[in-house]
Structure formats: structure tokens, C-alpha cells
Write a structure and sequence with these properties.
- The structure is a single chain.
- This protein is of the alpha/beta class.
- Helix 11 links the parallel strand 7 and strand 8.
- It is elongated and about 70 Å long.
Length: about 325
């Protein structure tokens, strides 16, 4: 992992636990896997704990690590560094995505609740209109009751957001997910729906799908046009899910609002109109784990290491099938 990532995720408590669970060597942490010193360590390594900044684990790297048995990821998606060769060798792969899901779900809940009353956008309007409060009535109904929230993806995060919303009892929740069990969606207090069925009903549309070839541009011009006027799009998943040009056009005419923690490209170009539109809020990819939150992911990876050491099954393994359908 990157050295800054290591410093953030592994404080003294995590390091003490790591020393207790494993025999460590030098270097303890690296962001490259090709130098002589690192290759020497790889030759005797049984477990890799990875995080942001880990290089892609190619066939050549795996050949240099004949004793490797497990790759325990102290972050969310393993897609940036786990190759097919890792699964072909039967290595155990785990993720700390469950720990990372919590802050994203909390951000999304806050965004949904503010979206009901258009708080970010009215805040931007206030800078222009100031004492003329007539602007309050220009962004549709401002209510936190009897609203419909559409969640695209009954993923770790989508399921958490659903639980938070249904627990508050403030909104009807529709879930669009072609691979999720409809019975599980109903058991969570939501209703399954197709995208075409759900979009015209959405007061808020929140995206929680993985970035896959089949999800690129999932929300394009036609989908944005199907949303009711004054609906709010929230994206905390991946920028590639949304056609940025179509989104820019839909927001520029004032009919759509958007809260964007992720974009494509990321960051947006400095001249993107989305920065200047009062009905758009752009945040710099802050929904996921940052600062002390990242230590929870390190602790999750160490939990998996403890289970591996004791010969117990992992809590959150990742399979090659998961790579095809999950983030």
C-alpha cells in the first residue's frame, strides 16, 4: 500500500496487533513489488495485507511469491490490484468493504435528508437572493414526508442506506438491482422495481451500483429525462455510472438537482459548468473512509488475519464471481 495510507490506517494499536499475529520482516510496508529487497520479502511471504496504492498482482509478481496464500485487503474494492491469476492460484482474498460502507451510507443518508428540502441548493440561492425569500418556492416541494427514494444497487452500501431510511420511516424505498433477490429486498422493507418503473417515481435517486462494463452510462439522457422535475440525483458510487454530458445538460436547464461525490472524470475539468450551477453540489470524493475512519478497515483486515491464523473461515471473502457483479 502507499506509505501515507499505511501511516493513516496502522496506528500503534493496529501495529501491536499485527506484531502479535504475524512474523514481520523488512520492509514492512511497500508501494512497489519489483525492487530486489521487496522481491526477497515476497519469496517468503504467506500473507499480503493490501490497501490503496497496492500494485496490480500480476502473474510475474505471484511467481515471485510461491508461499503466498492470502491477500487481505484493508479497503473496499480489490479490483484495482487483484488479477484473475490470484484466483486461478486459489489464494484467499478478503475485503474490508463492509467497514468502508458505513461512512458512505451515513453521507448518503445526510444527502437524502437534505435533498428532501433542497438544503444545499437553497443555501447556494441564498448567496444570490439574500433577503428576498421568494427563491424558497422555486425548487419544488420541500418536505421530508411521503417521498420516494430510488436506490440503484442493493449492495453493501445500498442495503445500509435502505435500512437507515426504512428505520426512520420517512420515505418509500424502491430498489433497482437485477441480481438481487426480490424477496430479500421486500424483507428489507423496500420494493423491487425496474429502472424504467422506478425513475418516474423518484424524488431522490441514489446510486450504489458497481463500476462494470454493463453499468457504464447506466444513467444517461433518457434516464435523466424520466425523472420528475426537481428530483435529486445522488452519486456516491462511481462516476462512470452517469453520462456526465447528459447530466450537465439536465442540470443546466434547472429541472434536475444533483449531489455528486464522484464524477467522471474525477475531478471534473476546471471549466465544467457543474461547478457553477446552484442546483449542483460537488464534493471531493469524501463519502468513503477518510482519516481515523480508515483504521476500521485495517482492523477488519487484522480480524481476517486472526481467522486465517486460527484456521477459521473468513468473514468477507471475495471470489472471481464477485468481481463480475460487485464493486
Amino acid at each position: 500500500m502507499g506509505h501515507d495510507t499505511f501511516t493513516a490506517q496502522f496506528a500503534e494499536a493496529e501495529l501491536a496487533r499485527l506484531r502479535y499475529l504475524a512474523a514481520l520482516g523488512d520492509p514492512l510496508v511497500t508501494d512497489e513489488l519489483h525492487s530486489p529487497g521487496t522481491l526477497s520479502r515476497l519469496a517468503e511471504t504467506e500473507v499480503l495485507i493490501t490497501s490503496w496504492g497496492c500494485p496490480y498482482l500480476t502473474e510475474d509478481i505471484l511467481n515471485a511469491a510461491p508461499r503466498l496464500r492470502a491477500v487481505l485487503h484493508a479497503a473496499g474494492s480489490v479490483r484495482p490490484h487483484v488479477s484473475r491469476a490470484v484466483f486461478d492460484r486459489g489464494l484467499l482474498v478478503t475485503t474490508a468493504a463492509e467497514a468502508n460502507a458505513e461512512p458512505v451510507a451515513h453521507y448518503t443518508l445526510a444527502a437524502v435528508l437534505w435533498a428532501f428540502k433542497k438544503v444545499p441548493f437553497l443555501g447556494a440561492d441564498a448567496r444570490t437572493f439574500r433577503t428576498d425569500w421568494s427563491y424558497r418556492d422555486r425548487r419544488g416541494e420541500l418536505s421530508g414526508r411521503d417521498r420516494t427514494v430510488v436506490l440503484v444497487g442493493h449492495s453493501r452500501i445500498g442495503a445500509r442506506v435502505c435500512a437507515l431510511l426504512t428505520g426512520l420511516g420517512l420515505a418509500r424505498v424502491l430498489i433497482v438491482d437485477p441480481v438481487a433477490d426480490p424477496a430479500a429486498i421486500r424483507a428489507a422493507g423496500a420494493q423491487p422495481a425496474t429502472l424504467a418503473e422506478a425513475l418516474p417515481q423518484a424524488d431522490v435517486l441514489s446510486l450504489h451500483a458497481p463500476a462494470l462494463p454493463q453499468t457504464r452510462g447506466l444513467i444517461g439522457a433518457a434516464e435523466l429525462a424520466a425523472l420528475p422535475r426537481h428530483a435529486v440525483l445522488i452519486n456516491t458510487a462511481r462516476g462512470s455510472l452517469v453520462d456526465t454530458e447528459a447530466l450537465t445538460r439536465a442540470c443546466a436547464d434547472g429541472g434536475l438537482h444533483a449531489i455528486l461525490d464522484v464524477t467522471e472524470p474525477e475531478p471534473l475539468p476546471a471549466d465544467s459548468p457543474l461547478y457553477d450551477l446552484p442546483n449542483v453540489l460537488v464534493t471531493p470524493h469524501v463519502a468513503g473512509s477518510l482519516g481515523s475512519e480508515t483504521r476500521r478497515m485495517a482492523q477488519a483486515a487484522l480480524d481476517e488475519l486472526e481467522r486465517y491464523r486460527a484456521g477459521r473461515p473468513p468473514v468477507d471473502p471475495v471470489s472471481s464471481h464477485d468481481m463480475a457483479v460487485r464493486a
